[in-house]
Amino acid sequence: MLKVGVLGAGHLGKIHLKLLNQSHKYNLIGFYDPIKENAEKVEKEFGYKSFETVKQLIDAVDVVDIVTPTLSHFDCAKEAIEKGKHIFIEKPITKTVEEANTLIKLSKLNNVKGQVGHVERFNPAFTAVKKSIHKPMFIEAHRLAEFNPRGTDVPVVLDLMIHDIDIILSVVKSEVSHISASGVSVISDTPDIANARIEFKNGCVANLTASRISLKNMRKTRFFQRDAYIAVDFFEKATEVVKMKDAPKTPDDFDMILQNAEGIKKQIYFENPVVEANNAILDELETFANAINNNTTPIVTLEQGTEALRVAQMIINDF
């Protein structure tokens, strides 16, 4: 079992602590939180060992799980990597692309693995249809959330939209050619609502909308490709797959047939992928353990986390 420690015992940090403590792939050694009152409360309530310093925790483990505010990601990760420790780091990977590139170089120099916490990659609705997504040419994503003070220290693009940026980059195998975006600050000092249009060199276009001041939660992405429409509801963990194929010469009475102006007939049919319930955070943590133990590539690499951040910063810079 890999010895693991958690940096940060806030809302998400406590979730990570609980799951790592349950996992059969990790041995949870303890955690560090800079707020002494919070550290004492977590230690007393859950029994996890609280370390006095970041250095003490890093020295005691094989893997460092970084669940601190984004501004401190780089310093925590740099210290861990230079000690030869593998790192799991929450999204966004760092504050700047320059910092992220430094972590990539350091990880290679010190021969350690890193994974970024883009948890929607492990959402069962997405994993159920990912193999069906082939060369999408138009993508529409809506990620709306009710207001929560957590996360408002960064623009909504880094808080919410970056989830969809990462998902889109994972299925569109092409470079970004152009971005146009707009953002509006309503409650926070940084934009709370944002829309971005991402154009890729292969002709694909993605339209993303994110809001953290909505009246209801929504996390839906729709993929349009040749002969198929695929919808993923990340919030409800549901999918909708509609495909077309050449119509049979003698269709049944209940077959859905469309005919275009050229007389070509297509049959519409529905697929119902099995969406298996899971704990996405536990899955991302345990697949990272597998990557370390088997010396394989993590599912969400530091390079991929950096590319998601780079595109997010391009969007922010276009406001």
TrEMBL record:
Domain called Gfo/Idh/MocA-like oxidoreductase N-terminal: residue spans: 2-118
InterPro entries attached to this UniProt entry: Gfo/Idh/MocA-like_OxRdtase_N, Gfo/Idh/MocA_Oxidoreductases, GFO_IDH_MocA-like_dom, NAD(P)-bd_dom_sf
Alphabetized GO MF terms: nucleotide binding
Domain annotation GFO/IDH/MocA-like oxidoreductase: ranges: 156-216
Cross-referenced Pfam families: GFO_IDH_MocA, GFO_IDH_MocA_C3
Superkingdom of source: Bacteria
UniProt cross-references to PANTHER family, sorted A to Z: BILIVERDIN REDUCTASE A (PTHR43377)
Protein name in the entry: Oxidoreductase
Source species: Lutibacter profundi
